[in-house]
Amino acid sequence: xxxxxxxxxxxxxxxxxxxxxxxxxxxxxxxxxxxxxxxxxxxxxxxxxxxxxxxxxxxxxxxxxxxxxxxxxxxxxxxxxxxxxxxxxxxxxxxxxxxxxxxxxxxxxxxxxxxxxxxxxxxxxxxxxxxxxxxxxxxxxxxxxxxxxxxxxxxxxxxxxxxxx
Length: 165
Prior knowledge:
Blueprint: E1 5-13, E2 18-21, E3 24-25, H1 32-40, E4 44-48, H2 49-55, E5 63-67, E6 81-84, H3 87-97, E7 101-106, H4 108-114, E8 120-126, E9 134-135, E10 144-151, E11 158-164
Parallel strand pairs: 1-7, 1-8, 4-5, 4-7, 5-6
Antiparallel strand pairs: 2-3, 2-9, 8-11, 10-11
Catalytic activity: (6S)-5,6,7,8-tetrahydrofolate + NADP(+) = 7,8-dihydrofolate + NADPH + H(+)
Function: Key enzyme in folate metabolism. Catalyzes an essential reaction for de novo glycine and purine synthesis, and for DNA precursor synthesis.
Keywords: NADP, One-carbon metabolism, Oxidoreductase
């Protein structure tokens, strides 16, 4: 049996890898959320507690796994929502459900915890350096650029880039 691909998806700044500020995304890039939805729909998504709280609800058409070290306190139970207390348990639950691709959707600590075991990165690289308090981990071990789509006419300019190890 093949193991599912573990993919990380994020929007980051080009130079500093800025990811968020005060538990919010840094940009509202036209087309980025529809792309996120198209890539992750029908799959398992794993996120940290703060990311879940910032979204405010389970994302539809996906199994949502939330990693929370304080359990499900403050998280209302919902269909397609699983709360676990460790990365290991999140992966274990995800692999019971998902056979193709598991998506890691944030936040910063979750990305840092998964970067060494991820197989693929779906990055929206934004050519802008706003104030940030959360940063994406170093991903220099991902050497193989699979696809790149530039949107340099946008404000701010960005590229969709897919990397594999």
